[in-house]
Design goal:
Blueprint lengths: L1 H4 L3 E5 L3 H7 L4 H21 L4 E8 L7 H24 L3 E5 L7 H14 L6 E8 L1 H17 L10 H6 L11 E4 L18 E4 L9 H13 L8 H5 L1
Parallel strand pairs: 1-2, 1-5, 2-4, 3-4, 5-6
Helix pairs in contact: 2-3, 3-4, 4-5
């Protein structure tokens, strides 16, 4: 499996915590806790098998609109995750990144996120990119604003703006294009996630709810991905030549 993963950027929309809990007549927060356990398993599995990049949709910009009690619990869960997994992330050579508007994250948690990014910035193993308070449209909007400022300051001309210019001004410009986008729970939407970087990603949808998504389910997604022919606009004949 290691050879299948070492050059890949896999992104996951972790969906279904609430439905997992509802099926068991449990509060939604219990589903979120179970989802956190599933995430730990997948990160460990990805790191062990030398995946290049794992991007996870942990909390969207739209999620702030959920009931205040649920949002507060999710922030508490995030805080606990950072504390519990700090040693594991650093010891396993994982480079931790955050994408999104973290100015909205509670200060204590935000400071811990920044510290963890700084502490792991030179790690050379799995790149773990956590999308928090994230919106793909906002990422592109922020990018446009940055480049517009460069133009106004005569640092770049409009004629010299390229795709590379855009990539250089996205969140965490070091992140490569997404190869495989996984979404759990049976929903078939991309939900405003990494809109620029998924332009040629293979999409994999599964009915499995996120808390039940384990290492075998992840491997099944990789196996399916390996069956796909990625043409990038070319014909089969061109790919063979």
């Amino acid at each position: 499996m290691a050879e299948a993963l070492e050059n890949l950027h896999v992104a996951i929309i972790m969906d279904g915590n609430g439905r997992w809990a509802k099926k068991r007549a449990l509060p939604r927060v219990v589903g979120h806790k179970a989802g956190g356990k599933a995430l730990k398993k997948i990160i460990t599995h990805a790191a062990k098998n030398h995946l290049k990049v794992l991007s996870i949709y942990a909390f969207s910009a739209e999620n702030w609109l959920r009931p205040k009690e649920e949002v507060a619990f999710l922030m508490q869960l995030l805080d606990e995750y950072i504390i519990d997994e700090w040693a594991s992330i650093t010891e396993n050579n994982i480079k931790f990144l955050v994408s999104g508007n973290i100015s909205l994250i509670p200060e204590k948690t935000r400071d811990a996120l920044i510290k963890l990014m700084e502490e792991t910035k030179n790690n050379t193993g799995l790149i773990l990119n956590m999308a928090l308070s994230y919106s793909g449209q906002d990422e592109i909007l922020d990018c446009v604003k940055k480049i517009s400022t460069f133009v106004l300051n005569n640092e770049i001309s409009i004629e010299n703006i390229t795709k590379e210019t855009i990539v250089d001004n996205l969140y965490n410009k070091e992140l490569p294009e997404v190869d495989l986008l996984i979404r759990t729970s049976g929903e078939k939407r991309i939900s405003n996630f990494m809109l620029w970087r998924i332009s040629y990603a293979e999409l994999y949808f599964t009915d499995v709810l996120w808390p039940d998504f384990d290492e075998n389910e992840f491997d099944n997604a990789i196996k399916e991905y390996k069956k796909r022919v990625r043409r990038f606009g070319k014909t089969d004949e061109q790919l063979k030549s």
